[in-house]
Specification:
By secondary structure, the protein is mainly α. It has two domains: 210 residues, Orthogonal Bundle (Clc chloride channel); 202 residues, Orthogonal Bundle (Clc chloride channel), CATH 1.10.3080. The chain is 76% helix and 0% strand. 56% of the residues are buried.
């Protein structure tokens, strides 16, 4: 009899393990496919907006503010867990997986709202990325598959889904793992590491099989002389750290309890969102459309050594900040990389004759680190997005300097600070 009981126990354990593996594989495949659809829809939305502007140049002054106001109103009244980037929601859910898995932060309903709202924002020229939303959508899909297969949802499941979302959105599997270590996981355990790497690998294979082997920004192999590098890397680190920290401070300030004029602004969120839309429309009009959307095309040209209007970086900073402050759903990953590219172009103007694309790359890693405070993720993501291994030392130097400078200007890390309200909602605090 004891032998039979032990055999049954082992069979049940093997069945649970098999279900858990099936859930991880199925979830990773599904989120990989959804991430590709999301990317294609985002590209179509931006192209449609560009076509509309070509036919009616005045359209953004009507469409953009109205869309901002409508999306923020819908988000606040019906889908509050879909607001903002999506990464803080995943962090909060992973911090309390029992409440998070059954709550709205990583539910399919919120994931669908996030998908639709982000596409709508891109249709209006908003400076949003799809990477943060992809993290939340991917975590929701991973949680849903585990619940369908009756597999317990742990913090590792939520983190693995979010990390795989980063990998699928950018086609950067190593960056997905790094982001899980630096941002999504408060305490990174061996079991979680294995699950994250498996989910990232499967999502990456799905993306590779469906979308093909592509490098997000295209391959580049520009280098800097050591003398120039020793000057540019600290400069890009300090400039990126300061500007990125100022961006983070503004977002954190609006998310926390406010007094005075800030309280009056927050008391009229729909009107404020419409005002942000006006800022986005005006900046895009003033820069001939350069500041609208993700800024991907302009950033890619700058990395290749081409030129854009010097106003690109500052204008992109303003519209990204206005879009993020509006409270509408949308990520800041891709827009932050574009702001960094603009910053790099301004720095490159101080070094005529040097490889402009390499300096732009340092500007991107400096500003991105200044915003997110995840230097390892910043370096790895830039290496994978450009297939460039020659710049690894200046990239690390720039990222570490930017991280140190940003920490002095803005002590709280952006996503951790933005996750606090969602954690409070889960605990009822």
């Amino acid at each position: 009899m004891p032998v039979i009981l032990l055999s049954n126990l082992l069979d049940r354990r093997q069945l649970r393990n098999a279900r858990a593996r099936l859930a991880a594989v199925a979830g990773a495949v599904l989120l990989g496919l959804v991430a590709i659809v999301f990317a294609r829809a985002g590209e179509f939305a931006q192209a449609l907006f560009a076509r509309l502007v070509a036919m009616a140049p005045w359209a953004p002054f009507v469409l953009t503010p109205l869309t901002f106001a409508a999306i923020v109103h819908l988000t606040r009244t019906t889908f509050p867990a879909a607001r903002g980037s999506g990464i803080p929601q995943v962090m909060a859910a992973a911090h309390n997986p029992r409440a998070g898995a059954g709550g709205p932060l990583v539910s399919l309903r919120i994931a669908a709202a996030k998908f639709a709202a982000t596409i709508a924002m891109l249709l209006s020229g908003a400076s949003v990325g799809r990477e943060g939303p992809t993290v939340q959508i991917s975590a929701a899909l991973m949680v849903a598959v585990h619940r369908w297969l009756r597999v317990p949802v742990t913090a590792g499941v939520i983190i693995a889904g979010g990390a795989a979302g980063v990998a699928a959105a950018f086609n950067t599997p190593l960056a997905g793992v790094a982001f899980a270590i630096e941002e999504l996981a408060a305490a990174f355990e061996q079991k979680v590491a294995v699950m994250v790497m498996a989910a990232v690998m499967i999502a990456g294979l799905v993306s590779l099989g469906v979308a093909g082997d592509y490098v997000y920004f295209g391959m580049m192999a520009q280098t800097l002389p050591i003398r120039t590098m020793l000057i540019v890397a600290p400069l890009a680190g300090v400039a990126g750290g300061v500007t990125g920290a100022l961006f983070s401070r503004a977002l954190i300030a609006l998310a926390r309890p406010a007094q005075g004029w800030l309280a009056r602004v927050r008391a009229r969120p729909i009107l404020f969102a419409a005002g942000c839309g006006v800022v986005v429309a005006a900046a895009g009009w003033a820069t001939d459309g350069l500041s609208w959307g993700t800024g991907y095309d302009t950033t890619r040209h700058l990395l290749a050594g081409d030129h854009a209007a010097l106003a690109f970086g500052p204008a992109k900073f303003v519209v990204t900040l206005a879009t993020a402050l509006s409270g509408a759903p949308g990520g800041i990953f891709a827009p932050s990389l574009s702001v960094g590219a603009g910053l790099g172009q301004l720095i490159a103007a101080l070094f005529p004759g040097s490889a402009a694309g390499a300096i732009v790359l340092l500007g991107m890693v400096g500003y991105f680190t200044g915003v997110v405070r995840a230097p390892m993720t910043a370096v790895i993501i830039m290496m994978e997005m450009t297939a460039d291994r020659t710049m690894i030392l200046p990239l690390f130097a720039t990222a570490l300097i930017a991280d140190a400078v940003s920490a002095r200007v803005c002590r709280p890390k952006l996503y951790h600070a933005l996750a606090e309200p969602f954690r409070a909602e889960l605990t009822g605090g």
